[in-house]
C-alpha cells in the first residue's frame, strides 16, 4: 500500500513539473516573438529617408545603397527565418522534445542579438553621416569668418609681422583652397571626407591665429628689447674695465657676440614660422642675459667685500698674533706648575703653525689686490676661505686657553675633594671612639691603614711640581673608593658589635636554666673580647633563638628605637 502511494506521488510530481516547464518555454517563445516584431518596427526607413535629403551622389549614394540592402535583407530574409525557427520550436514542444526545443530557442536568441546589433549599427552610421554634414556646415561658416579676420589683420598690420608676413600669406591662401575643396566634396556627397577637411582647416587656422598673436611680440623682443640689453651690458662691461675691474675671465665680448648670433637665428626661425622654437630661444636668451648681469653685479659686490674685509682681516690676524703671544707666556708659566700632556703641547704648536700659514696667505692676497690682475670675485672666494679658517683657528685657540685655565680650577676641586675625604675618615674614627669597642678586628685595621695611605698618596700627588692632573685624578678615584668602603665597614662593624652585646645581655635571663645557652653565650663573649663582632653576634643569636625564637627581632627593634631617640 505504501509503495503504491509513493509511485502515485512521484507520478503527480512529474506531471506538475512537466506542465510548469512547458509553460516557461512557451513564455520564452512569446518573448522572442515580441523581440522579432520590435526589430521589424525599428525606424530604419525613417532614418534612411533623412539621408535622401542630402546630395545622393558619391560616398552618400554608396552608403545609402548598402544600408537599404542591409535593412531589406533583415526584413525580407532574416526575420522571416526567425519566424520559421519559432514555429519549429513550438512544434518540438508539442511533441515534448524539450532538449531540442531549448537548444533551438538559444540559437534564436543569439540570432536576434546579432540582428539587434546590425540594426543599431545602421542607425548609428546614418546619424553619424547626417550629424557630420550638419556640424561641418555650421563650423565651415565660423572658419570662413576666422579666415577673413586673419587676412584682414595681416593686411592692416603687415609691418608688425616682418619677414614672416610672406609665409603667412602663403599659408592663408593654401587654407582658402580648402574651402573650395570642402564645397566640392559636399557637392559630390562625400560628407565624411568633407568633415576631415573641416577638422584640418580648424587646426591650421588655429595655428595661424596663435602665430599671428605671438609674432609681433617675439619680433619686439628680438629686434628691440634683447639687442638693447646686450648694448647696455657691453657699455657696463667697458665702464667697469675703465674703473680697473679685472673681467677677462668673463670672456664678455665673445659671449655677447654669441647672443647676437642667437638673436639672428631666432629671426630666421620667425621668418620660417618656426614659432615654438623661436619662443624657446628667446626664453633661453633672457635667462642668459640675466646671468650676465648677475656676473657683473657679483664683481661689484666682490669689490666692496674685498675693500671692507681686507682691513678687518688684517686687524683680526694682528689680534690673533698678540693673543697667541699671551697664550705662549701663559703656557710657559702653567708648565712650571702643571704637567701638560704631549697632545696639548702638540695642539699649541699646531695653532702657532696655522697662524703663520694664515698670515702668509693673507699677505699673498694683499699682493694680488695691489697687482690688480685678479678678478675681485676670485679674491672674494679666497678671502671667504681665509675667514672660515681664521674662525676655526680662533676656536681651537680658545679651547687651548680654556684647558690652561681649567688646570688651576681642577687642582682646587681636587684639594676640596681631599678635604672632604679626610673629614669622612675622621667621622668614621669618631664613630669608633664613641662606640667604646674593646678593640678593632685585624681586617678593619688593614682597611683603615689602606684608606689613610690612599689619602696620603693624593696629598703627595698634589705637592708634585709640575702637577700631573690626570695622575691626581687617578689617585683621587682610588682614595674615594677606599674611604667610602671604610666608612661603610665602620657603620656595619659598630652595628654588629652593639647588637652582639645587647643579644648577650638579653640571653643572660636563660643562662642558669639552659646549659646550652650558657655555653653559646660564653663563646660569644669570648669572640667579642677578641674583636670578632660579626661571629660573636652570630653565636649569641643562635644561642638565644634556640630557646626563644624571634628574640633577635625584639633585640633589633629595641636597638632601632634607641638609635632613633639618640638622633
From TrEMBL:
One of its GO terms (cellular component) is septin ring. Residues 22-567 are cytoplasmic. Pfam families: EzrA (PF06160). Residues 98-153, 256-337, 369-410, 445-496 form a coiled coil. The keyword Ribosomal protein does not apply. Residues 1-2 are extracellular. GO terms for biological process: division septum assembly; septin ring assembly. Keywords: Cell cycle, Cell division, Cell membrane, Coiled coil, Membrane, Septation, Transmembrane, Transmembrane helix. InterPro entries: EzrA. It is found in: Cell membrane. The keyword DNA-binding does not apply. It is a single-pass membrane protein. Negative regulator of FtsZ ring formation; modulates the frequency and position of FtsZ ring formation. Inhibits FtsZ ring formation at polar sites. Interacts either with FtsZ or with one of its binding partners to promote depolymerization. Belongs to the EzrA family. This is Septation ring formation regulator EzrA. It comes from Geobacillus thermopakistaniensis (strain MAS1).
Amino acid at each position: 500500500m505504501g509503495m503504491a502511494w509513493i509511485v502515485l506521488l512521484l507520478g503527480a510530481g512529474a506531471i506538475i513539473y512537466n506542465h510548469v516547464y512547458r509553460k516557461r518555454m512557451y513564455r520564452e517563445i512569446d518573448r522572442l516573438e515580441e523581440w522579432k516584431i520590435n526589430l521589424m518596427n525599428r525606424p530604419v526607413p525613417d532614418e534612411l529617408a533623412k539621408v535622401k535629403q542630402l546630395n545622393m551622389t558619391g560616398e552618400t549614394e554608396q552608403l545609402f545603397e548598402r544600408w537599404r540592402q542591409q535593412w531589406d535583407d533583415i526584413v525580407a530574409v532574416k526575420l522571416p527565418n526567425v519566424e520559421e525557427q519559432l514555429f519549429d520550436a513550438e512544434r518540438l514542444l508539442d511533441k515534448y522534445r524539450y532538449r531540442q526545443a531549448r537548444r533551438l530557442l538559444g540559437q534564436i536568441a543569439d540570432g536576434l542579438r546579432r540582428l539587434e546589433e546590425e540594426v543599431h549599427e545602421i542607425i548609428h552610421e546614418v546619424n553619424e553621416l547626417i550629424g557630420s554634414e550638419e556640424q561641418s556646415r555650421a563650423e565651415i561658416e565660423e572658419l570662413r569668418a576666422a579666415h577673413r579676420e586673419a587676412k584682414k589683420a595681416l593686411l592692416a598690420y603687415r609691418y608688425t609681422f616682418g619677414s614672416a608676413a610672406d609665409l603667412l600669406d602663403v599659408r592663408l591662401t593654401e587654407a582658402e583652397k580648402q574651402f573650395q575643396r570642402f564645397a566640392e566634396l559636399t557637392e559630390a556627397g562625400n560628407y565624411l571626407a568633407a568633415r576631415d577637411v573641416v577638422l584640418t582647416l580648424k587646426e591650421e587656422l588655429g595655428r595661424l591665429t596663435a602665430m599671428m598673436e605671438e609674432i609681433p611680440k617675439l619680433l619686439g623682443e628680438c629686434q628691440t628689447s634683447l639687442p638693447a640689453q646686450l648694448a647696455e651690458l657691453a657699455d657696463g662691461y667697458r665702464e667697469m674695465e675703465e674703473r680697473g675691474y679685472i673681467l677677462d675671465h668673463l670672456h664678455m665680448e665673445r659671449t655677447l657676440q654669441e647672443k647676437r648670433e642667437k638673436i639672428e637665428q631666432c629671426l630666421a626661425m620667425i621668418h620660417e614660422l618656426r614659432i615654438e622654437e623661436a619662443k624657446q630661444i628667446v626664453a633661453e636668451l633672457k635667462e642668459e642675459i640675466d646671468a650676465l648681469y648677475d656676473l657683473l653685479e657679483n664683481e661689484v659686490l666682490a669689490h666692496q667685500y674685498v675693500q671692507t674685509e681686507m682691513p678687518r682681516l688684517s686687524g683680526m690676524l694682528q689680534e690673533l698674533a698678540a693673543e697667541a703671544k699671551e697664550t705662549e707666556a701663559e703656557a710657559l708659566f702653567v708648565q712650571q706648575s702643571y704637567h701638560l700632556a704631549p697632545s696639548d703641547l702638540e695642539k699649541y704648536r699646531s695653532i702657532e703653525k696655522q697662524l703663520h700659514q694664515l698670515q702668509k696667505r693673507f699677505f699673498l692676497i694683499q699682493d694680488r689686490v695691489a697687482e690688480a690682475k685678479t678678478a675681485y670675485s676670485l679674491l672674494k672666494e679666497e678671502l671667504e676661505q681665509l675667514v672660515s679658517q681664521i674662525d676655526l683657528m680662533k676656536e681651537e685657540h680658545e679651547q687651548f686657553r680654556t684647558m690652561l685655565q681649567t688646570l688651576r680650577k681642577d687642582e682646587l676641586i681636587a684639594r676640596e675633594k681631599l678635604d672632604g675625604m679626610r673629614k669622612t675618615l675622621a667621622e668614621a674614627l669618631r664613630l669608633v671612639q664613641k662606640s667604646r669597642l674593646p678593640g678593632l678586628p685585624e681586617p678593619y685595621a688593614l682597611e683603615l691603614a689602606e684608606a689613610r695611605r690612599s689619602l696620603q698618596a693624593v696629598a703627595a700627588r698634589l705637592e708634585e711640581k709640575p702637577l700631573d692632573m690626570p695622575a691626581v685624578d687617578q689617585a683621587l678615584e682610588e682614595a674615594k673608593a677606599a674611604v667610602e668602603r671604610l666608612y661603610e665597614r665602620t657603620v656595619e662593624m659598630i652595628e654588629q658589635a652593639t647588637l652582639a652585646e645587647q643579644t648577650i645581655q638579653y640571653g643572660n635571663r636563660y643562662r642558669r636554666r639552659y646549659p646550652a645557652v650558657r655555653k653559646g653565650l660564653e663563646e660569644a663573649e669570648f669572640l667579642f673580647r677578641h674583636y670578632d663582632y660579626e661571629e660573636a653576634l652570630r653565636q649569641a643569636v643562635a644561642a638565644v633563638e634556640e630557646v626563644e625564637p624571634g628574640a633577635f627581632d625584639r633585640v633589633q627593634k629595641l636597638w632601632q628605637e634607641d638609635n632613633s631617640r639618640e638622633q
